[in-house]
Each structure stands twice: as structure tokens, then as C-alpha cells.
Amino acid sequence: MRKKIILACTDCGSRNYSSESNKALNVERLEIKKFCKTCNAHTAHKETK
Ligand SMILES: [Zn+2]
């Protein structure tokens, strides 16, 4: 089964990334450090619906 996920910045709430779940992302309470254009910095991004 494929699940579409969106990664949102935990700082500003911007939804910067989206992808389909895979092994690496198949975790609850996913949190990944990604670059946020809005914050202009690397921030924690969380899975959102
Ligand atoms: Zn941000």
C-alpha cells in the first residue's frame, strides 16, 4: 500500500515536501531535518495529512 505524506516545517508550518512513504519514512511521528525556504534554515519537518 502506498501512502502519500506531506512534510511540514514544525517552525512555521509550511508544507515544503511531499513524497510517498517508503521504508525510511514508514515510521510514526516522523521527523526529518530539511531546509525550509520560509525559515531560510534547516528545521525539523513532520509528517502531516
Ligand atoms: Zn519553516
UniProtKB/TrEMBL annotation:
Residue spans crossing the bilayer: none
Coiled coil region boundaries: none
Listed InterPro entries: Ribosomal_bL33 (IPR001705), Ribosomal_bL33_sf (IPR038584), Ribosomal_zn-bd (IPR011332)
A cellular component term, taken from the record's GO annotations: cytoplasm
GO molecular function, one term: structural constituent of ribosome
Highest taxon in the source lineage: Bacteria
Keyword tags: Ribonucleoprotein, Ribosomal protein
One Pfam assignment: Ribosomal_L33
One biological process term in Gene Ontology: translation
Keyword tRNA-binding assigned: no
Family, as annotated: Belongs to the bacterial ribosomal protein bL33 family.
NCBIfam families: PRK00504.1, PRK00595.1, rpmG_bact
Protein name: Large ribosomal subunit protein bL33
